[in-house]
Description:
By secondary structure, this protein is α/β, with parallel strands linked by helices. It has helices at 2-47, 82-94, 113-122, 138-147, 169-182, 201-212, 234-243, 258-264, 307-315, 327-340, 342-356, 364-372, 377-390; strands spanning 54-57, 99-102, 126-131, 151-156, 186-193, 216-221, 279-282, 287-289, 298-301.
Amino acid sequence: MLRIVCCMFALKLEEMLCGRQLRMGRRRLRAAGRRLRESRMFARAMVSKHHPILAQIVPTRRCNLACTYCNEFDAVSAPVPLAEMLRRVDLLAGLGTTIITISGGEPMLHPDLDEIIRRVRRHGAIATLITNGYLLTAERIRQLNRAGLDYLQISIDNVVPDETSKKSLKVLGRKLELLAEHAEFAVTVNSVLGSPVRNPEDARTIAQQARELGLTSTVGILHDGDGQLRPLAADHLAIYRDLLEPNQKMFEFAQYDRFQRNISQGLPNQWHCRAGGRFLYICEDGLVHYCSQQRGHPAIPLERYTRADLEREAAAKKACAPFCTISCVHQTAMLDSFRENPRQVLTDMIAARKERDPGYRPPALLGALTWMFLDGPVKRVLGRIAVRVLRAQS
């Protein structure tokens, strides 16, 4: 009897190990595919300045939580019908959008979320999901794998839930473990600092657990109801600086944190916001807005949004830009900054890296990129070659 039990245990263990190896293999393949499509996205951004790099699309305004600092939800809205959501994805693809992020509300409340993700992927765009994580289960994660999700972002505000936010590590810690075990898409766990946060040390605890599980960890700064900054208190600022990872890859968006560093100290940023052109926010009513915090501008129906609108709104000066905290809009601006002034951007990125890691030595790749993207004929010729190699259409 003991021998039978031992044999059954050995078989079960072998099955588990084989399953884990298969998952790891699928993760590596999916990661390689993501990197290729990200390279295409980068190449397109370098040669074309009149297509959206990133668009956020809202399939439902309803949320199963009620965080007091959030102005992007309600408790009653019905989900946007699937046919309309698919049409909006098609319209964004027609504008040349390379990344489509599904947000909310809580997008996992939409009954046809997986079909929306599949439509995004069918167009060759990168599919991203922003969720509070409450509805994640092992099977739901596997369904998202099958739908083709590329990235998932989950924000955890505290260790123990309070009246400000229920997005706590106590509730969501098990969800992170499920993601680490089952997700074939990349997962980012965002902890937060700012005036609504009671215990800033929670951000450190959340980041540590995420990293121990092999998940990407970032830290954000909570904005006010208009998307504007509130300078961090001294204890929050110290933790923010500690949580900036010195070993991040050079070209991860989280690495280029000049915007957030200034925001954390209550300083304005001098930059040109291209929202309405390079970044679009599509509300549940199908209107195009600058971002989630500037709803009402320009508020043009997506089906009527044209290249002329993209160019006009990208060029428009936004009064809210100096104290904006919307990091995804900053990130799209970073790509345009690189296209327009690659030497300066690379210099700034290296300087920021050396500030945190004095022993850092830039890799040869940076020199090659600096040479490749100089203004003039070299840039044009190599840009065309890159686009053809990556099959990116301008």
